[in-house]
Amino acid sequence: MSMPPITIIGCGYVGTRLAMQIKQEAPGLLGVVHSESSARHLQDIGIGAHSMDLDTDPSPPVDEHWVFYFAPPAPTGQSDQRIGHWLNSLARQRPAKVVLISTTGVYGDCGGRWITEAAPLNPQTDRARRRIDAEQRLTQWCDARQVPCAILRVPGIYGPRRLPRARLERRLPVLAEAESPYSNRIHVDDLILACLAAARSNFSGVVHVSDGHPSTMTDYFNRVADALGLPRPEQISLEEAQHSLSGEMLSYLAESKRLDITRMRTVLGVEPDYPDLDRGLSDCVASE
Question: In 23-123, which ranges are continuous DSSP H helix?
């Protein structure tokens, strides 16, 4: 299937890797970024670029484009006015498909249970509430205009140059394994595989994108340390963690869930190339 023109809104780490993968076969590929320096970086590596303030500027033309919307919401509040402004600026344009990256944080804490996309939304943070608002705004806009959209609920993303090396080198502690919640993750290249599959398919709706092999967050940090040849971090109790870990880290530790990826496999036809940390971290270290 040939590709229509493609616009990547928020062309950062994931978007740039996606653009590099498809730039030879994607006519009119455009990466939208916030700063002029980011635009110059994209241009230097052969990717068309457009810098704009997503909160105030109108969108570049996306009529009949595949749009990958990767821009995060603004860092405060419970609603995503940013995606709202972008949608309003489209006026009568109709993308061929919109693919949105959202977060599995929308489910809140699930007590370590396996969950499907039908699980109830129970956001515990404003960060997750903003993502739900983004999903709802996009779905309503697309439904009203009969534009297909796929919402990918994504856990922690890792990949080359996206490992917690600095945290491990600073010897910051982690939660004791026995108290550590389940977490899920996806290698960046598998996420890109899912994004392209979602754009090519007739699917509209929500789908989990994960490697299907959750483990504890402590296990993740330990295995990254092993892969990088660094000491494993000290493990501390939950009570100690309340006084020594950041608020953001504590918010992640307060949620435990395991993601069912049946829909990713059956509807999108995606099987991860990196189904577990052994293969994924080996690739990351080799790339670095």
Answer: 36-44, 81-89
In tens digits, what is the pLDDT along the chain, a chain of 288 residues?
A: 578 999 999 999 999 999 999 999 998 899 999 999 999 999 999 999 999 999 999 999 999 999 999 999 999 999 999 999 999 999 899 999 999 999 999 999 999 999 999 999 999 999 999 999 999 999 999 999 999 999 999 999 999 999 999 999 999 999 999 999 999 999 999 999 999 999 999 999 999 999 999 999 999 999 999 999 999 999 999 999 998 889 889 999 999 999 999 999 999 999 999 999 999 999 999 987
Alpha helices, H only, 8-160: 13-22, 36-44, 81-89, 126-145
Beta strand extents in the chain (DSSP E only)? 6-9, 30-33, 48-51, 66-69, 97-103, 114-115, 149-154, 156-158, 174-175, 182-183, 185-187, 205-208, 215-216, 235-236, 258-259
Question: By residue range, what is the domain housing residue 39?
Answer: 6-159+185-212+258-274
Tokens of 216: 């504890």
- C-alpha torsion sign, points 28, 29, 34, 36: negative
Tally the domains of the chain: 1
* CATH code, domain carrying 203: 3.40.50.720
